[in-house]
Write a structure and sequence with these properties.
four-stranded antiparallel β-sheet; Isoleucyl-tRNA Synthetase, Domain 1; about 60% helix; alpha/beta; 23 helices; about 625 residues; Gyrase A, domain 2
């Protein structure tokens, strides 16, 4: 419910001042401070230019004007008070409850999106994520990327924006050739099937093998040099010793450099279309992509289109040629093409085409931006990429502006996620793979469930454990502002108390438990958890019996849900939704312990059941936007 806008319309009508627009009044209406017995407040200093008075005097005058009108003409407003420059407004909770509950019962989707779609036109938005390299499995960092991209997509879809989810597979380059080199040397024609290993993990093992071989040779070279230096210091009197030792150093270094040369040659052969190299490359990339798709399925990730670096890496040169013609880019004497910047926060110069005519990542990125525009005709393109790429994206967007692209490009620059053991390094083989993490969380959840239920079938235990594990992971990651870095703690994420996914699932299951008990004793309910079926959309007009502080707070929270959805979309902050769901679940817990439901008299019992059903629907709707499945029993 957009109470801000409704209050703004009421105040505008009372003031009858064309200079003070409804939009302006809506903008300066804020949520009241928690220590004030009110719902909304206006800092009247924001109205100083219209009244030529100071804030406290304006608040006092408006209080006088509004108080004389609201009692008879605007029953939505229960009370208006002032404190210094603040004008505090309290909404009539009985009217609020009637409006909110009936709208939730009528259509939760329309209710949730109501605030946003009133003032915002639908947009066509491309969201690119997670753009992994095809030389290793997805890891914890990719999980954060995926969950942010997926949740951004779903909250935007909830307000009728047209969303296109795309992925870019970085499937070429020196890092890919490292895995290929290791497979040629150590693979012995093995396959994921022969080794019974998930295919992307199989590829990743060879990336680790390459890193180990590289580290071994580096260590060998350094040890050899250290030994030679010690010998040289001991035997300085021997003739020609320096020359001998220098030669030995070169031999040692050549063993390491030959490794690099072989990998570089493999990349050159790939670019030249060498059949053998291309065949190996295709085989290993297929293994990697097939493994990714299995992980995507676990997380319910679905892309509308996948782009491949190997298909676009050499494109973009036509865009650079266009920029040269219109004078945006410059060709240097050595043949390189650059763009010069004279703007704070950007480099002085960025190379777009090397002097040998080869392209760079930025050239590829330019092509992809235009390709996405051609494919989807977007209004906005969101790149879900870590904050280590801030400068790269800033440069890209500036170039696109200079080239005349009108659409908005956004870098959704998220912070890194670490473990209690520190940062992840895939080259060392110490990275936490996404699949392994999910498996660990499921095992931990299964242990907890088995403590609570000793007679459930194994299949049902595993189903519940999977839902709880994924809920714990999703919620723990999404509850943080995307720009923050944080430490992921698997055990803490699975706790059934506190700000966790399992806690919210437990609140949902508790509501279902109330309904199940009611059905057993023949008390009518609006929802049957046993059949997952809505039984009756009760139309209630009198909510005057709801007077408990928890009941009133729950009504306020339910009314605020459309604001949360709108703010989450506009600010691109899904953590606002996650925190809201926790607040709602927490307030429900207080209500559950303070307010009897099934033992109450029929009229109040019915209202409290309706309130429970409203909470259930909002929790389920919000959890669905976080791609969290619910359980009717925990």
């Amino acid at each position: 419910m957009d109470y801000k806008n409704r209050l703004a319309e009421i105040f505008s009508e009372i003031l009858d001042n064309s200079a003070i627009s409804v939009q302006y009044l809506s903008r300066i209406l804020k949520n009241a401070n928690k220590n004030v017995e009110a719902d909304f407040a206006i800092n009247c200093f924001a109205l100083k230019k219209f009244f030529n008075q100071n804030g406290p005097d304006i608040a006092k005058e408006l209080h006088k004007i509004f108080s004389s009108k609201i009692q008879n003409e605007f029953p939505l407003i229960q009370d208006i008070s002032f404190d210094g420059p603040y004008l505090n407004i309290k909404i009539n909770k009985e009217i609020m409850a009637k409006e909110v509950v009936n709208e939730i019962f009528e259509n939760i989707d329309i209710f949730a999106s109501s605030n946003h779609i009133i003032i915002n036109k639908p947009e066509r938005i491309v969201i690119e994520y997670p753009a992994p390299n095809t030389n290793k499995p997805l890891h914890l960092g990719h999980i954060r990327n995926m969950l942010l991209g997926q949740t951004l997509s779903k909250i935007n879809q909830a307000v009728n924006n047209k969303i296109f989810q795309v992925n870019l597979l970085n499937d070429r380059g020196i890092h890919i050739c490292k895995s290929m080199w290791a497979y040629e040397k150590f693979g012995n024609e093995k396959t994921p099937q022969s080794e019974k290993i998930k295919s992307d993990h199989f590829v990743g093992n060879f990336y680790v093998k390459y890193a180990q071989e590289e580290a071994r040779l580096k260590s060998y070279v350094q040890d050899k040099i250290d030994l030679l230096e010690k010998e040289k210091q001991k035997k300085t009197e021997e003739k020609n010793l320096d020359k001998i030792k220098d030669l030995e150093k070169k031999i040692a270094r050549s063993k390491y450099s030959s490794l690099q040369k072989e990998v570089n040659q493999m990349l050159i052969d790939w670019e030249n279309g060498d059949t053998k190299v291309r065949t190996l490359w295709r085989k290993m990339n297929d293994w990697a992509e097939n493994g990714f798709n299995q992980t995507f399925k676990i997380f319910k990730i679905m892309h509308d289109k996948t782009y491949y670096e190997s298909e676009i890496y050499n494109l973009g040169k036509k865009i650079v040629e266009k920029g040269l013609k219109i004078g945006i880019f410059e060709k240097l004497e050595d043949g390189a093409v650059v763009i010069n910047f004279n703007k704070k926060g950007l480099p002085k110069q960025k190379v777009l085409i090397r002097k040998d005519g080869t392209s760079l990542y930025i050239t590829q990125d330019l092509h992809l931006a235009y390709q996405k525009m051609k494919d989807f005709n977007y209004d906005k393109s969101i790149y879900v990429i870590g904050n280590e790429q801030n400068m790269q994206l800033r440069v890209l967007f500036e170039i696109l502006k200079k080239l005349g692209m009108k659409a908005e490009n956004v870098h959704y620059s998220y912070g890194m996620i670490n473990l209690t053991s520190g940062k992840m390094k895939s080259r060392e083989g110490t990275v936490v793979d996404a699949d392994d993490l999910v498996e660990k969380l499921i095992d931990l959840a299964l242990l907890e469930i088995k403590k609570r239920y000793t007679n459930l079938p194994e299949e049902e235990l595993k189903r519940r454990a999977s839902i709880i594990a994924l809920a714990s992971l999703r919620f723990f990651i999404i509850k943080y502002d995307y720009s923050r870095e944080f430490v992921f703690d698997p055990e803490k994420s699975l706790e059934f108390e506190g700000e966790t996914g399992p806690y919210i699932l437990y609140s949902y299951a508790r509501i279902c438990s109330i309904f199940k008990k009611a059905i057993e004793i023949n008390i009518p309910v609006p929802y049957d958890p046993n059949k997952d079926k809505i039984l009756d959309n009760w139309n209630i007009n009198d909510f005057s019996l709801l007077k408990n502080e928890h009941e009133l707070k729950l009504i306020e929270l339910l009314a605020f849900y459309p604001n949360i959805i709108s703010d989450s979309v506009k600010q691109m902050k899904p953590h606002l939704l996650a925190r809201y769901l926790y607040d709602l679940a927490q307030e429900f817990t207080g209500f559950y312990h303070s307010c009897p439901i099934l033992k109450e008299k029929p009229n109040l019992r019915k209202l409290r059941l309706v309130l429970c059903e409203s909470i259930r629907r909002v929790l389920r709707h919000g959890l669905n936007l976080l791609t969290i499945d619910v359980l009717t029993e925990m």
